[in-house]
Amino acid sequence: MKKQEKPHLLEHNMSNNNFHGVLQQKIFEVLLQSVKELGLETYLVGGFVRDHLLGTERAAKDIDIVAIGSGIELAQVIQKKLTNASPIKIFKSYGTAMIQWEGITLEFVGARKESYSRESRNPKIFSGTLEDDQKRRDFTINALAVSLNPKNIGELIDPFNGLQDLKNGVIKTPQDPSITYSDDPLRMLRAIRFAAQLKFKIENRSLNAIKENVNRLSIINSERIVDELNKILMTQIPSVGYLLLERTGLLEKIIPELVNLKGVEEIEGQKHKDNFYHTLEVVDNLCMKSDNLWLRWAALLHDIGKAPTKKFHQKIGWTFHGHEFVGSKMVYKLFKRLKMPLNEKMKYVQKLVMMSSRPIIISEDIVSDSAVRRLVFDAGDLLEDLITLCEADITTKNPTRFKRYHSNFKIVRQKITEVEERDRIRNFQPPVTGEMIMRHFNLKPCKEIGVIKEAIKEAILEGEIPNDYQAAFNLMLRKGNEIGLVNNGE
Asked: What's the predicted TM-score (pTM) here?
C-alpha cells in the first residue's frame, strides 16, 4: 500500500459508512443476533477494525470482540449458532474465549483494566468499561472500536485519534509510551513489526521510550520474541524492521551476532564493506524472490561468521577466511539461545550458511564440470535455494560488475542443468554399494570398503567414470586389486 493512498482510502471507507456493509456478512448477522438476545454491550475492536479501514486482506481472518460483561458467555452462545464451529477454547484466568469457524478466528474478551508488576508482562485483570479496555491497548490504531449494539450499530469509537494516526501512518501508544513499553516490553517489538508491515513511522516520543526500555526485554520469553522476529522477516522489506531494531538497541539484546557486523575499519588505506548493511540488503534482495522463512533466516545469518574471522594482511588486505564454517557453528548457538527449533530447519539454515560462498566461487572462474558436480552433490535438495541466496548476495553498485556477476550465475545454472541431465548427481547414491563390495570380496565391515566407495564417488564427481553400475564395478575391481583384496570370482 502506498503511503499517499491511505488518507483517500480511509476517507472513502468512513464516508460510505463502510462497517454497515461489513456487518451484513453471515458471521456478523449471528454475532448481532446473539448480542441482541443477551442484551450485552459489545464492540469489535483492534486488528479487525484497523485492517478493514486499511483495506488489507487480513481484515476478515481475525476478529476480536469486547463485551462489557462476560465475553465467555457471548462466545458460548455464538458457538452453538455457528454450524461447524470448532469447540470453544476458554482461558478463564484472562476471561477470554476463542472459536474457529470457516477459516476465521473469533476471540471474545470481557472489557477490562490491567495492572502490571515489574517482574512479568502478565497483568492482573479487573472488569472495566470500553474506555478502560481501549486504554490498555498497545497502539492508538489498535484501540479503534466499532459498536455492535442496536442503538448505534457500526459507529466508530475512537478516543485516542487512532483514525488520524491511520491516515498519517503513525505508530503511537494511547498512554505514556514509557509506561506502555515497560508494562509489556513485547509491545516494543510489535511497534517495529507494525511499522514494517504497514510502512508506518513510529512517533519520536514512542521511539525514544523503546530505547529507554530495551533492558525490559529480559522478562519476555524467547518464543514470543522469535515470533515477532519472524513476522518482521516475512514483511516485504525486512530491512525496515531490522534497522529499527538496531537503531533502538533491541537487536543487540536479541541477535548481537548481527550488530557485531556493523562498522567499517580502515588500515593503510584499505577498507572492507559494512557487513551489517550488506546483510540487510541481501535479505531484501532475497525477499523479492522467495517467501521461504528459513531461507530468509539463512540470508540474515549468512555472514555472521565474518566478525570473528576478520583479519588484516598487509599484502592482500581484509580477509574473512573460514567465515562460512564459523558462521554455521554460530547458527546452532543462536538457535539454541533463542529457543528456536533445533531440527531440520536449523540444519537447513546451517548448511546454506556453510555453503553460501560455493556458487559465488564457481561463478567467478571458468566453470568446470567437476566443480559443478561437487556443488550439486554437496547441496542436494538445497541447490536451488543456495543459488537464489547467492544471487541475492550480489549487492555491488557497479553496474558493469553487477551485470557480469548475474551473467555468470546464468552460466552456472545452465551448467547445473546440463550436468544433472547427464550425470544424475543430486541426492547421489553410489552405483556399487557397501554390501556389494563386501559380498564380492568376502569381507566383513572394514575400512577398505570405505576406501573403495570413496574412490568410486571421487571418480564420478571428477568425471573420470560415468555414473553407472558397470563403470563403478570395474573401478571397484581395480581398486580392490590395488589394496590387496581377493576377488571371490562372483
From this structure: 0.84
